[in-house]
Structures are given as C-alpha cells and as structure tokens.
Amino acid sequence: MADRSGPADPDQSWGGNPAGFIYGVLAVATVVAAESTPRETFGTVLEASALVIALYWLAHAYAHHLGSRLQRPTEWTLRDFGAALAHEAAILEGALLPFAALVGAWLVGASLETGVTAALWCAGVEIVVLEVIAALRRRLRPRDVVVETVMGVAMGLGVLGVRVLLH
Fold first, then answer.
1. Residue 165: CA atoms inside 13 Å, Cβ hemisphere, count?
2. What integer is the mean pLDDT of 47-73?
C-alpha cells in the first residue's frame, strides 16, 4: 500500500511556506493573463506584475501577522511583522519563474504577446511540476499521480482561461 502521508510538518519544505509559493505562481500568472497586449508595453506589464506581487506579499504578511495577534493577543512589533514578511516571501519566490520568462522575452526583443504566452506557460508548467513532485514525494500509485497532476493542469488551464475570457 502506498504511503499517503506527507511530511510531518508541511511548512518545513518549500521555504517554510509551500502555499505561498503556489500563490505567487498563480498571482503573477493571473495578472499577466489579464493584461491587454495590444494596449500595453513590456514596461507596464512588468510594473503591474511587480506591484501586484509586492502588494499580494504584503497583504499575506499583514494577514498572517494580524491573524496571529487575534489568536494570541500581543503587541504589534516590527520583529514579528518582519517574521511574517519572511514567512510569506515564498510568494515572491513562486512568482519568479513566470516573471523571469516575461523579462527574458523583453530582453531578447520578443513581442509582448510572446512574453505573456511564455510567462503563462512557465506558470502552468510550474504548477504541474509541483503537483507531480507532491505526488511522487508521497510514493503514490501511478494512477494517483495522474489524478493529482490533473489538478495542476486544471489550475494552469484556469489561468489560460482568464487570458481567453479577457481577450
């Protein structure tokens, strides 16, 4: 029988916040997918993506910090907020590959549409690879690996669906 248990503490892998990593991938992909390439430039898409990811990171850190203070009433401290920022930095890490694909396309002189497509494919592949890693780490049967991978494919298609619906 396959071992279906994950790590004893899932927050000890993927930089301490695997969910944040995934949020980062999906957030940057969704922002990029929503951009209107006929009206935008690489500069505006990169700026908007960076701003949204930074705000998303800060919002998660703020929510993490406030949630902790609501659970166990303590004073607001810069040290604790810094720890929340560090915990949520996985969002920035997750956004890095799709963002880098967009920057890379810009640097080689590709069209913005090509850059957006590259960023979206990077995000989709990243999510699928993470699903496969999660399934293989738990030594699932091949059928179960496929089922879990399909979830990643669905998330990737969801981001592409945003692009199709808005354009």
1. 8
2. 91
